[in-house]
Backbone:
Protein backbone atom coordinates (compact mmCIF):
# COMPACT_ATOMS: atom_id res chain seq x y z
CA UNK A 1 0.00 0.00 0.00
CA UNK A 2 1.51 3.35 -1.09
CA UNK A 3 2.25 6.13 1.41
CA UNK A 4 -0.33 8.93 1.45
CA UNK A 5 1.21 12.37 1.16
CA UNK A 6 -1.34 14.99 2.19
CA UNK A 7 0.58 17.89 0.63
CA UNK A 8 0.21 16.40 -2.84
CA UNK A 9 -3.16 14.81 -2.14
CA UNK A 10 -5.09 17.90 -1.05
CA UNK A 11 -4.49 19.94 -4.25
CA UNK A 12 -5.50 16.89 -6.23
CA UNK A 13 -8.74 16.62 -4.28
CA UNK A 14 -9.37 20.34 -4.68
CA UNK A 15 -8.95 20.11 -8.46
CA UNK A 16 -11.19 17.07 -8.61
CA UNK A 17 -13.74 18.88 -6.47
CA UNK A 18 -13.79 21.82 -8.89
CA UNK A 19 -14.18 19.46 -11.84
CA UNK A 20 -17.11 17.74 -10.17
CA UNK A 21 -18.65 21.10 -9.36
CA UNK A 22 -18.33 22.21 -13.00
CA UNK A 23 -19.88 18.98 -14.29
CA UNK A 24 -22.73 18.92 -11.78
CA UNK A 25 -23.72 22.58 -11.92
CA UNK A 26 -23.24 22.85 -15.68
CA UNK A 27 -25.31 19.76 -16.34
CA UNK A 28 -27.86 20.73 -13.70
CA UNK A 29 -28.51 24.22 -15.01
CA UNK A 30 -28.79 23.03 -18.60
CA UNK A 31 -30.97 20.07 -17.64
CA UNK A 32 -33.22 22.13 -15.37
CA UNK A 33 -34.03 24.53 -18.21
CA UNK A 34 -34.39 21.87 -20.89
CA UNK A 35 -36.08 19.28 -18.65
CA UNK A 36 -38.70 21.65 -17.23
CA UNK A 37 -39.49 22.91 -20.73
CA UNK A 38 -39.78 19.35 -21.99
CA UNK A 39 -41.99 18.43 -19.03
CA UNK A 40 -44.22 21.44 -19.76
CA UNK A 41 -44.57 20.42 -23.39
CA UNK A 42 -45.42 16.84 -22.44
CA UNK A 43 -47.98 18.12 -19.92
CA UNK A 44 -49.54 20.62 -22.31
CA UNK A 45 -49.75 18.19 -25.24
CA UNK A 46 -51.26 15.42 -23.13
CA UNK A 47 -54.65 14.37 -24.54
CA UNK A 48 -57.36 16.69 -23.20
CA UNK A 49 -54.94 19.45 -22.18
CA UNK A 50 -54.65 22.88 -23.71
CA UNK A 51 -52.24 22.01 -26.52
CA UNK A 52 -53.45 18.42 -26.88
CA UNK A 53 -51.33 16.92 -29.64
CA UNK A 54 -50.85 13.20 -29.53
CA UNK A 55 -48.06 13.23 -32.15
CA UNK A 56 -45.83 15.56 -30.12
CA UNK A 57 -46.87 13.91 -26.86
CA UNK A 58 -46.02 10.41 -28.10
CA UNK A 59 -42.78 11.51 -29.76
CA UNK A 60 -41.38 13.16 -26.63
CA UNK A 61 -42.56 10.28 -24.50
CA UNK A 62 -40.76 7.86 -26.79
CA UNK A 63 -37.50 9.84 -26.54
CA UNK A 64 -37.77 9.96 -22.76
CA UNK A 65 -38.54 6.26 -22.55
CA UNK A 66 -35.61 5.38 -24.82
CA UNK A 67 -33.03 7.41 -22.90
CA UNK A 68 -34.16 6.71 -19.33
CA UNK A 69 -33.68 2.95 -18.96
CA UNK A 70 -30.21 2.92 -20.62
CA UNK A 71 -27.42 2.89 -17.99
CA UNK A 72 -25.64 6.24 -17.91
CA UNK A 73 -22.22 4.77 -18.76
CA UNK A 74 -23.62 3.35 -21.99
CA UNK A 75 -25.32 6.64 -22.90
CA UNK A 76 -22.07 8.47 -22.22
CA UNK A 77 -20.00 6.10 -24.34
CA UNK A 78 -22.53 5.94 -27.15
CA UNK A 79 -22.73 9.71 -27.25
CA UNK A 80 -18.97 10.28 -27.54
CA UNK A 81 -19.11 11.26 -31.24
CA UNK A 82 -22.04 13.59 -30.64
CA UNK A 83 -20.33 15.04 -27.57
CA UNK A 84 -17.23 15.74 -29.66
CA UNK A 85 -19.42 17.45 -32.25
CA UNK A 86 -21.35 19.57 -29.73
CA UNK A 87 -18.70 20.37 -27.13
CA UNK A 88 -15.63 20.26 -29.39
CA UNK A 89 -14.03 17.52 -27.29
CA UNK A 90 -15.06 14.29 -25.65
CA UNK A 91 -12.59 14.49 -22.76
CA UNK A 92 -12.68 16.52 -19.57
CA UNK A 93 -15.38 17.89 -17.29
CA UNK A 94 -16.78 20.36 -19.84
CA UNK A 95 -17.32 17.57 -22.36
CA UNK A 96 -18.96 15.41 -19.69
CA UNK A 97 -21.61 18.08 -19.16
CA UNK A 98 -23.28 17.07 -22.43
CA UNK A 99 -24.24 13.45 -21.67
CA UNK A 100 -24.95 14.33 -18.04
CA UNK A 101 -27.29 17.15 -19.06
CA UNK A 102 -29.05 14.96 -21.59
CA UNK A 103 -29.77 12.17 -19.13
CA UNK A 104 -30.76 14.62 -16.40
CA UNK A 105 -33.08 16.49 -18.78
CA UNK A 106 -35.25 13.48 -19.51
CA UNK A 107 -35.41 12.61 -15.82
CA UNK A 108 -36.41 16.18 -14.96
CA UNK A 109 -38.94 16.17 -17.81
CA UNK A 110 -40.68 13.17 -16.22
CA UNK A 111 -40.54 14.67 -12.73
CA UNK A 112 -41.86 18.03 -13.95
CA UNK A 113 -44.63 16.33 -15.92
CA UNK A 114 -45.80 14.27 -12.95
CA UNK A 115 -45.69 17.34 -10.66
CA UNK A 116 -47.82 19.25 -13.16
CA UNK A 117 -50.28 16.40 -13.60
CA UNK A 118 -50.59 16.13 -9.83
CA UNK A 119 -51.88 19.70 -9.44
CA UNK A 120 -55.36 19.58 -7.90
CA UNK A 121 -57.89 19.64 -10.78
CA UNK A 122 -60.23 21.59 -8.50
CA UNK A 123 -57.82 24.53 -8.46
CA UNK A 124 -57.52 24.46 -12.24
CA UNK A 125 -61.31 24.40 -12.48
CA UNK A 126 -61.54 27.34 -10.09
CA UNK A 127 -59.24 29.26 -12.44
CA UNK A 128 -61.44 28.45 -15.41
CA UNK A 129 -64.55 29.40 -13.43
CA UNK A 130 -63.00 32.79 -12.65
CA UNK A 131 -62.63 33.34 -16.37
CA UNK A 132 -58.91 32.61 -16.77
CA UNK A 133 -58.07 31.39 -20.27
CA UNK A 134 -56.13 28.11 -20.61
CA UNK A 135 -52.69 29.72 -21.06
CA UNK A 136 -53.28 31.97 -18.10
CA UNK A 137 -54.32 28.95 -16.04
CA UNK A 138 -51.12 27.15 -17.03
CA UNK A 139 -48.78 30.00 -16.12
CA UNK A 140 -50.53 31.52 -13.12
CA UNK A 141 -52.03 28.43 -11.52
CA UNK A 142 -50.63 25.10 -12.70
CA UNK A 143 -46.94 26.02 -12.69
CA UNK A 144 -46.92 27.95 -9.39
CA UNK A 145 -48.89 25.15 -7.72
CA UNK A 146 -46.39 22.54 -8.99
CA UNK A 147 -43.31 24.52 -7.98
CA UNK A 148 -42.93 23.16 -4.43
CA UNK A 149 -42.71 19.46 -5.31
CA UNK A 150 -40.73 20.38 -8.43
CA UNK A 151 -38.03 21.97 -6.25
CA UNK A 152 -37.67 18.72 -4.32
CA UNK A 153 -37.53 16.77 -7.59
CA UNK A 154 -34.77 19.05 -8.87
CA UNK A 155 -32.82 18.54 -5.65
CA UNK A 156 -33.10 14.79 -6.15
CA UNK A 157 -31.70 15.15 -9.67
CA UNK A 158 -28.85 17.34 -8.42
CA UNK A 159 -27.82 14.59 -6.01
CA UNK A 160 -28.18 11.96 -8.72
CA UNK A 161 -25.88 14.08 -10.91
CA UNK A 162 -23.18 14.04 -8.25
CA UNK A 163 -23.45 10.27 -8.42
CA UNK A 164 -23.40 10.22 -12.23
CA UNK A 165 -20.24 12.36 -12.40
CA UNK A 166 -18.33 9.43 -10.92
CA UNK A 167 -19.28 7.42 -13.99
CA UNK A 168 -18.52 10.35 -16.28
CA UNK A 169 -15.11 10.48 -14.61
CA UNK A 170 -14.34 6.93 -15.62
CA UNK A 171 -14.76 7.74 -19.30
CA UNK A 172 -12.57 10.82 -19.13
CA UNK A 173 -14.56 13.44 -17.30
CA UNK A 174 -12.30 13.71 -14.26
CA UNK A 175 -13.70 14.82 -10.93
CA UNK A 176 -14.02 13.33 -7.47
CA UNK A 177 -15.49 10.03 -8.61
CA UNK A 178 -12.59 9.49 -11.00
CA UNK A 179 -10.13 10.27 -8.18
CA UNK A 180 -11.81 7.81 -5.84
CA UNK A 181 -11.78 5.12 -8.52
CA UNK A 182 -8.15 5.54 -9.60
CA UNK A 183 -6.71 5.89 -6.07
CA UNK A 184 -9.11 3.84 -4.03
CA UNK A 185 -10.12 1.06 -6.40
CA UNK A 186 -7.05 0.70 -8.57
CA UNK A 187 -4.29 1.58 -6.05
CA UNK A 188 -5.94 0.58 -2.76
CA UNK A 189 -5.30 4.08 -1.37
CA UNK A 190 -8.05 4.01 1.25
CA UNK A 191 -7.20 7.41 2.77
CA UNK A 192 -7.74 9.24 -0.51
CA UNK A 193 -10.87 7.29 -1.15
CA UNK A 194 -12.38 8.07 2.25
CA UNK A 195 -11.56 11.77 1.99
CA UNK A 196 -13.19 11.86 -1.44
CA UNK A 197 -16.23 10.03 -0.12
CA UNK A 198 -16.46 12.48 2.77
CA UNK A 199 -16.37 15.40 0.33
CA UNK A 200 -19.07 13.77 -1.82
CA UNK A 201 -21.28 13.19 1.19
CA UNK A 202 -20.82 16.82 2.23
CA UNK A 203 -21.82 18.07 -1.23
CA UNK A 204 -24.93 15.87 -1.21
CA UNK A 205 -25.90 16.94 2.31
CA UNK A 206 -25.49 20.62 1.47
CA UNK A 207 -27.47 20.25 -1.75
CA UNK A 208 -30.31 18.42 -0.01
CA UNK A 209 -30.36 20.99 2.80
CA UNK A 210 -30.50 23.87 0.32
CA UNK A 211 -33.18 22.09 -1.75
CA UNK A 212 -35.34 21.52 1.31
CA UNK A 213 -35.01 25.16 2.30
CA UNK A 214 -36.01 26.37 -1.15
CA UNK A 215 -38.94 23.94 -1.25
CA UNK A 216 -40.13 25.20 2.13
CA UNK A 217 -39.94 28.75 0.88
CA UNK A 218 -41.90 27.90 -2.25
CA UNK A 219 -44.49 25.94 -0.29
CA UNK A 220 -44.77 28.73 2.31
CA UNK A 221 -44.49 26.21 5.10
CA UNK A 222 -42.68 28.71 7.26
CA UNK A 223 -45.87 30.72 7.74
CA UNK B 1 -88.46 40.39 -11.48
CA UNK B 2 -86.32 39.34 -14.34
CA UNK B 3 -84.80 35.97 -14.98
CA UNK B 4 -81.16 35.51 -13.99
CA UNK B 5 -80.68 31.95 -15.15
CA UNK B 6 -82.94 29.78 -17.23
CA UNK B 7 -82.40 26.16 -18.08
CA UNK B 8 -84.30 25.26 -21.22
CA UNK B 9 -84.62 21.57 -22.08
CA UNK B 10 -81.14 20.89 -20.78
CA UNK B 11 -79.93 17.33 -21.32
CA UNK B 12 -76.47 15.91 -20.86
CA UNK B 13 -75.24 12.48 -21.81
CA UNK B 14 -71.87 11.13 -20.77
CA UNK B 15 -70.19 8.14 -22.34
CA UNK B 16 -68.84 5.95 -19.53
CA UNK B 17 -66.92 2.84 -20.59
CA UNK B 18 -68.67 2.86 -23.94
CA UNK B 19 -72.09 3.06 -22.33
CA UNK B 20 -74.22 6.16 -22.37
CA UNK B 21 -75.20 7.73 -19.11
CA UNK B 22 -77.87 10.40 -18.94
CA UNK B 23 -76.75 12.88 -16.31
CA UNK B 24 -79.46 15.43 -17.12
CA UNK B 25 -82.82 14.81 -18.74
CA UNK B 26 -84.76 17.72 -20.13
CA UNK B 27 -84.29 20.07 -17.21
CA UNK B 28 -86.39 23.24 -17.24
CA UNK B 29 -85.98 25.74 -14.44
CA UNK B 30 -85.78 29.45 -14.09
CA UNK B 31 -83.98 31.35 -11.39
CA UNK B 32 -85.22 34.89 -10.86
CA UNK B 33 -82.97 37.78 -9.97
CA UNK B 34 -82.53 37.93 -6.18
CA UNK B 35 -83.44 34.30 -5.61
CA UNK B 36 -81.54 31.97 -3.37
CA UNK B 37 -82.34 28.82 -5.29
CA UNK B 38 -81.48 25.45 -3.80
CA UNK B 39 -81.08 22.28 -5.82
CA UNK B 40 -81.23 19.15 -3.67
CA UNK B 41 -80.77 15.54 -4.56
CA UNK B 42 -78.80 12.47 -3.62
CA UNK B 43 -75.34 11.98 -5.07
CA UNK B 44 -75.49 11.13 -8.74
CA UNK B 45 -78.78 12.96 -9.22
CA UNK B 46 -77.12 15.36 -11.66
CA UNK B 47 -77.34 18.49 -9.54
CA UNK B 48 -73.64 19.42 -9.79
CA UNK B 49 -73.65 18.77 -13.52
CA UNK B 50 -76.62 21.11 -13.85
CA UNK B 51 -74.90 23.79 -11.77
CA UNK B 52 -71.75 23.56 -13.85
CA UNK B 53 -73.66 24.27 -17.06
CA UNK B 54 -74.27 27.80 -15.74
CA UNK B 55 -70.64 28.83 -16.35
CA UNK B 56 -70.12 26.24 -19.10
CA UNK B 57 -67.68 24.12 -17.11
CA UNK B 58 -70.08 21.48 -18.40
CA UNK B 59 -71.76 21.76 -21.79
CA UNK B 60 -75.25 20.32 -22.30
CA UNK B 61 -75.69 17.74 -25.03
CA UNK B 62 -78.88 19.56 -25.96
CA UNK B 63 -80.85 22.51 -24.67
CA UNK B 64 -79.83 26.01 -23.64
CA UNK B 65 -78.67 27.70 -20.49
CA UNK B 66 -79.42 31.40 -20.60
CA UNK B 67 -77.62 33.60 -18.08
CA UNK B 68 -78.50 37.30 -18.04
CA UNK B 69 -80.06 36.94 -21.45
CA UNK B 70 -77.04 35.24 -23.04
CA UNK B 71 -76.95 31.63 -24.12
CA UNK B 72 -73.76 30.45 -22.41
CA UNK B 73 -73.84 27.09 -24.16
CA UNK B 74 -72.92 28.88 -27.38
CA UNK B 75 -70.02 30.90 -25.94
CA UNK B 76 -66.32 30.29 -26.35
CA UNK B 77 -62.97 31.93 -25.79
CA UNK B 78 -63.01 35.59 -24.82
CA UNK B 79 -66.82 35.87 -24.61
CA UNK B 80 -67.05 32.86 -22.32
CA UNK B 81 -64.24 34.23 -20.19
CA UNK B 82 -66.07 37.54 -19.85
CA UNK B 83 -69.33 35.84 -18.82
CA UNK B 84 -67.50 33.66 -16.30
CA UNK B 85 -66.08 36.76 -14.66
CA UNK B 86 -69.68 37.81 -13.98
CA UNK B 87 -70.49 34.52 -12.25
CA UNK B 88 -68.85 33.77 -8.91
CA UNK B 89 -68.38 30.14 -7.96
CA UNK B 90 -67.60 28.43 -4.65
CA UNK B 91 -66.68 24.80 -4.15
CA UNK B 92 -66.96 22.00 -1.61
CA UNK B 93 -63.15 21.68 -1.45
CA UNK B 94 -62.69 25.49 -1.56
CA UNK B 95 -60.12 25.20 -4.39
CA UNK B 96 -57.91 28.00 -3.13
CA UNK B 97 -54.50 28.46 -4.71
CA UNK B 98 -52.04 26.96 -2.24
CA UNK B 99 -49.16 28.91 -3.71
CA UNK B 100 -50.81 32.25 -2.97
CA UNK B 101 -51.80 33.88 0.29
CA UNK B 102 -55.31 34.98 1.17
CA UNK B 103 -54.80 38.45 -0.30
CA UNK B 104 -53.41 37.07 -3.56
CA UNK B 105 -56.22 34.51 -3.82
CA UNK B 106 -58.89 37.19 -3.55
CA UNK B 107 -56.92 39.48 -5.87
CA UNK B 108 -56.62 36.81 -8.59
CA UNK B 109 -59.93 37.52 -10.39
CA UNK B 110 -59.28 41.27 -10.12
CA UNK B 111 -55.90 40.87 -11.81
CA UNK B 112 -57.67 38.84 -14.48
CA UNK B 113 -60.06 41.71 -14.99
CA UNK B 114 -57.04 44.00 -15.39
CA UNK B 115 -57.76 46.35 -12.48
CA UNK B 116 -55.00 48.75 -11.40
CA UNK B 117 -53.05 47.73 -8.31
CA UNK B 118 -54.42 50.44 -6.04
CA UNK B 119 -58.00 49.49 -6.87
CA UNK B 120 -57.24 45.82 -6.26
CA UNK B 121 -55.83 46.69 -2.85
CA UNK B 122 -58.96 48.62 -1.86
CA UNK B 123 -61.32 45.99 -3.18
CA UNK B 124 -59.55 43.07 -1.51
CA UNK B 125 -59.47 44.96 1.79
CA UNK B 126 -63.20 45.62 1.51
CA UNK B 127 -63.91 41.95 0.69
CA UNK B 128 -61.78 40.58 3.52
CA UNK B 129 -63.53 42.97 5.87
CA UNK B 130 -66.90 41.70 4.60
CA UNK B 131 -66.00 38.04 5.24
CA UNK B 132 -64.26 38.91 8.53
CA UNK B 133 -60.74 37.85 7.56
CA UNK B 134 -58.89 41.17 7.45
CA UNK B 135 -56.27 39.84 9.85
CA UNK B 136 -55.54 36.79 7.68
CA UNK B 137 -54.57 38.60 4.48
CA UNK B 138 -50.97 37.37 4.53
CA UNK B 139 -51.70 33.81 5.64
CA UNK B 140 -51.49 30.89 3.27
CA UNK B 141 -54.57 28.69 2.79
CA UNK B 142 -53.00 25.64 4.40
CA UNK B 143 -52.94 27.52 7.70
CA UNK B 144 -56.69 28.27 7.67
CA UNK B 145 -59.61 26.27 9.05
CA UNK B 146 -62.28 24.93 6.70
CA UNK B 147 -64.69 27.73 7.52
CA UNK B 148 -62.01 30.37 6.95
CA UNK B 149 -61.06 28.77 3.64
CA UNK B 150 -64.67 28.91 2.46
CA UNK B 151 -64.90 32.56 3.51
CA UNK B 152 -61.82 33.27 1.38
CA UNK B 153 -63.56 31.32 -1.41
CA UNK B 154 -66.62 33.54 -1.03
CA UNK B 155 -64.52 36.73 -1.01
CA UNK B 156 -62.74 35.54 -4.16
CA UNK B 157 -66.05 34.66 -5.84
CA UNK B 158 -67.43 38.13 -5.07
CA UNK B 159 -64.31 40.03 -6.10
CA UNK B 160 -65.43 40.95 -9.59
CA UNK B 161 -68.87 42.04 -8.31
CA UNK B 162 -70.78 39.21 -9.98
CA UNK B 163 -74.58 39.26 -10.27
CA UNK B 164 -74.74 35.51 -9.77
CA UNK B 165 -73.05 33.19 -7.31
CA UNK B 166 -73.13 29.44 -7.86
CA UNK B 167 -72.26 27.14 -5.00
CA UNK B 168 -71.34 23.48 -5.38
CA UNK B 169 -71.87 21.80 -1.98
CA UNK B 170 -70.08 24.72 -0.35
CA UNK B 171 -70.90 23.65 3.19
CA UNK B 172 -70.69 19.87 2.78
CA UNK B 173 -67.12 19.66 4.09
CA UNK B 174 -67.86 21.83 7.12
CA UNK B 175 -69.11 21.08 10.63
CA UNK B 176 -72.61 22.27 11.60
CA UNK B 177 -71.43 25.40 13.44
CA UNK B 178 -69.16 26.51 10.58
CA UNK B 179 -71.91 25.64 8.10
CA UNK B 180 -74.15 28.08 9.95
CA UNK B 181 -71.54 30.83 9.73
CA UNK B 182 -71.00 30.30 6.02
CA UNK B 183 -74.76 30.26 5.38
CA UNK B 184 -75.14 33.52 7.32
CA UNK B 185 -72.48 34.99 5.09
CA UNK B 186 -74.25 33.78 1.93
CA UNK B 187 -77.48 35.27 3.21
CA UNK B 188 -75.71 38.63 3.58
CA UNK B 189 -74.25 38.26 0.08
CA UNK B 190 -77.79 37.88 -1.21
CA UNK B 191 -79.35 40.66 0.85
CA UNK B 192 -76.61 43.29 0.96
CA UNK B 193 -75.18 42.85 -2.53
CA UNK B 194 -78.34 41.59 -4.23
CA UNK B 195 -76.46 38.61 -5.65
CA UNK B 196 -78.61 35.81 -7.05
CA UNK B 197 -77.46 32.50 -5.56
CA UNK B 198 -77.89 29.06 -7.08
CA UNK B 199 -76.70 26.38 -4.73
CA UNK B 200 -76.44 22.65 -4.89
CA UNK B 201 -76.60 20.58 -1.72
CA UNK B 202 -77.65 17.25 -0.33
CA UNK B 203 -78.50 18.86 2.99
CA UNK B 204 -82.13 19.95 3.22
CA UNK B 205 -81.18 22.03 6.25
CA UNK B 206 -79.13 24.32 4.01
CA UNK B 207 -82.14 24.86 1.76
CA UNK B 208 -84.41 25.48 4.71
CA UNK B 209 -82.13 28.05 6.25
CA UNK B 210 -81.28 30.24 3.27
CA UNK B 211 -83.19 29.36 0.11
CA UNK B 212 -86.49 30.83 -1.04
CA UNK B 213 -86.92 28.33 -3.87
CA UNK B 214 -85.97 24.72 -4.26
CA UNK B 215 -85.78 22.07 -6.95
CA UNK B 216 -85.52 18.38 -6.12
CA UNK B 217 -83.55 16.27 -8.55
CA UNK B 218 -83.43 12.55 -9.09
CA UNK B 219 -81.79 10.56 -11.89
CA UNK B 220 -81.05 13.69 -13.89
CA UNK B 221 -84.59 15.03 -13.68
CA UNK B 222 -86.21 17.78 -11.69
CA UNK B 223 -88.99 15.90 -9.94
CA UNK B 224 -90.39 18.82 -8.02
CA UNK B 225 -89.74 22.53 -7.73
CA UNK B 226 -91.34 25.55 -6.17
CA UNK B 227 -91.03 27.92 -3.27
CA UNK B 228 -89.33 26.45 -0.24
CA UNK B 229 -92.52 26.97 1.75
CA UNK B 230 -94.69 25.04 -0.70
CA UNK B 231 -92.28 22.16 -1.10
CA UNK B 232 -91.66 21.84 2.62
CA UNK B 233 -95.29 22.23 3.60
CA UNK B 234 -96.58 19.97 0.90
CA UNK B 235 -94.03 17.79 -0.85
CA UNK B 236 -95.63 15.68 -3.55
CA UNK B 237 -92.84 13.51 -4.96
CA UNK B 238 -91.58 10.66 -2.73
CA UNK B 239 -87.98 11.92 -2.98
CA UNK B 240 -89.03 15.41 -1.92
CA UNK B 241 -90.97 13.90 0.95
CA UNK B 242 -87.91 12.01 2.07
CA UNK B 243 -85.77 15.14 1.90
CA UNK B 244 -88.33 17.19 3.77
CA UNK B 245 -88.72 14.53 6.45
CA UNK B 246 -84.95 14.64 6.99
CA UNK B 247 -85.32 18.08 8.54
CA UNK B 248 -88.99 18.38 9.40
CA UNK B 249 -90.27 15.49 11.50
CA UNK B 250 -93.98 16.26 11.53
CA UNK B 251 -95.07 12.87 10.31
CA UNK B 252 -94.63 9.75 12.37
CA UNK B 253 -92.27 7.20 10.89
CA UNK B 254 -93.40 3.55 10.68
CA UNK B 255 -91.78 2.60 13.97
CA UNK B 256 -93.56 5.40 15.82
CA UNK B 257 -96.87 4.55 14.13
CA UNK B 258 -96.52 0.92 15.14
CA UNK B 259 -95.94 2.01 18.72
CA UNK B 260 -98.92 4.40 18.55
CA UNK B 261 -101.10 1.61 17.17
CA UNK B 262 -100.49 -0.57 20.21
CA UNK B 263 -102.40 1.95 22.30
CA UNK B 264 -104.48 3.99 19.86
CA UNK B 265 -106.66 1.50 18.06
CA UNK B 266 -109.19 4.08 16.81
CA UNK B 267 -109.18 5.69 13.37
CA UNK B 268 -106.14 7.85 12.65
CA UNK B 269 -106.15 10.90 10.43
CA UNK B 270 -103.27 13.11 9.39
CA UNK B 271 -104.12 16.79 9.23
CA UNK B 272 -101.88 19.23 7.35
CA UNK B 273 -102.11 22.74 8.67
CA UNK B 274 -100.88 25.76 6.75
CA UNK B 275 -100.30 29.30 7.93
CA UNK B 276 -103.59 30.10 9.67
CA UNK B 277 -105.45 33.37 9.50
CA UNK B 278 -107.91 32.87 12.35
CA UNK B 279 -107.89 31.24 15.73
CA UNK B 280 -110.85 29.00 14.87
CA UNK B 281 -110.51 26.01 17.21
CA UNK B 282 -111.56 23.75 14.35
CA UNK B 283 -110.43 20.48 15.87
CA UNK B 284 -112.41 20.71 19.10
CA UNK B 285 -115.30 22.53 17.38
CA UNK B 286 -115.80 19.76 14.81
CA UNK B 287 -115.27 17.02 17.37
CA UNK B 288 -117.94 18.55 19.60
CA UNK B 289 -120.40 19.00 16.72
CA UNK B 290 -120.25 15.31 15.86
CA UNK B 291 -119.89 13.92 19.34
CA UNK B 292 -116.44 12.58 18.62
CA UNK B 293 -113.43 12.48 20.95
CA UNK B 294 -109.88 12.96 19.79
CA UNK B 295 -106.28 12.34 20.80
CA UNK B 296 -103.34 14.15 19.21
CA UNK B 297 -100.90 11.25 18.92
CA UNK B 298 -98.07 12.77 16.85
CA UNK B 299 -97.19 15.98 15.06
CA UNK B 300 -95.30 19.22 14.81
CA UNK B 301 -95.38 22.77 13.54
CA UNK B 302 -92.47 24.67 11.94
CA UNK B 303 -91.78 28.16 10.72
CA UNK B 304 -90.39 28.79 7.27
CA UNK B 305 -89.88 32.23 5.77
CA UNK B 306 -92.10 33.72 8.46
CA UNK B 307 -94.93 31.30 7.72
CA UNK B 308 -96.08 28.34 9.75
CA UNK B 309 -96.92 24.85 8.60
CA UNK B 310 -97.45 21.59 10.39
CA UNK B 311 -98.93 18.15 10.48
CA UNK B 312 -100.92 16.52 13.26
CA UNK B 313 -101.75 12.86 13.52
CA UNK B 314 -105.04 12.57 15.37
CA UNK B 315 -107.01 9.59 16.68
CA UNK B 316 -110.76 10.04 16.32
CA UNK B 317 -112.96 8.05 18.68
CA UNK B 318 -116.67 7.58 18.11
CA UNK B 319 -119.25 5.84 15.96
CA UNK B 320 -118.06 5.31 12.36
CA UNK B 321 -120.75 7.59 10.87
CA UNK B 322 -119.85 10.38 13.28
CA UNK B 323 -116.13 10.00 12.58
CA UNK B 324 -116.88 10.02 8.83
CA UNK B 325 -118.83 13.26 9.24
CA UNK B 326 -116.06 14.78 11.36
CA UNK B 327 -113.45 13.91 8.71
CA UNK B 328 -115.64 15.53 6.03
CA UNK B 329 -115.84 18.73 8.06
CA UNK B 330 -112.13 18.71 8.82
CA UNK B 331 -111.39 18.40 5.11
CA UNK B 332 -113.06 21.75 4.59
CA UNK B 333 -110.65 23.48 6.94
CA UNK B 334 -107.43 21.59 6.36
CA UNK B 335 -105.91 18.86 4.24
CA UNK B 336 -106.86 15.54 5.79
CA UNK B 337 -105.78 11.99 5.01
CA UNK B 338 -106.95 8.92 6.87
CA UNK B 339 -104.40 6.29 7.84
CA UNK B 340 -106.31 3.05 7.94
CA UNK B 341 -104.87 -0.43 7.70
CA UNK B 342 -101.35 -1.49 8.67
CA UNK B 343 -100.59 -2.02 4.96
CA UNK B 344 -100.98 1.64 4.22
CA UNK B 345 -98.89 2.54 7.22
CA UNK B 346 -96.00 0.66 5.72
CA UNK B 347 -96.51 2.31 2.37
CA UNK B 348 -96.36 5.74 3.96
CA UNK B 349 -92.82 5.28 5.12
CA UNK B 350 -91.52 3.26 2.18
Residues:
Amino acid sequence: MPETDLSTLLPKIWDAFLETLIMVTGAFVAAAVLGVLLGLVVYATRPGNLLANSAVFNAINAVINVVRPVPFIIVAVALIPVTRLVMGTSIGPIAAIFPLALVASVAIARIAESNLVAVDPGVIEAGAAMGARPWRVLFTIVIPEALGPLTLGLTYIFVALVDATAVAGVIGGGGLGDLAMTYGYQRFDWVTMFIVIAVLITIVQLAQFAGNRVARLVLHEGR
Amino acid sequence: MSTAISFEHVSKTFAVDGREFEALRDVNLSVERGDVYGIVGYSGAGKSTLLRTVNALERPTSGRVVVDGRDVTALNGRDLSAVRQRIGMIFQQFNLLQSRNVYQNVAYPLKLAGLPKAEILDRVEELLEFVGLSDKALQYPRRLSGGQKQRVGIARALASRPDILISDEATSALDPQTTGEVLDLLRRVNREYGVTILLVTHEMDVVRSIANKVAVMQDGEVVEHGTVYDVFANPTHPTSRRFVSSVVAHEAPASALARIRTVHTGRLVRIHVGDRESNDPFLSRIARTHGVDFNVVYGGVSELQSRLFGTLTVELLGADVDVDAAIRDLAEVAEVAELSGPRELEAVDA
Remarks:
- The mean pLDDT of chain A is 88.
- Residues 45 and 189 of chain A are 52 Å apart (CA to CA).
- The domain at 30-219 of chain A is CATH 1.10.3720.10 (MetI-like fold).
- The radius of gyration of chain A is 21 Å.
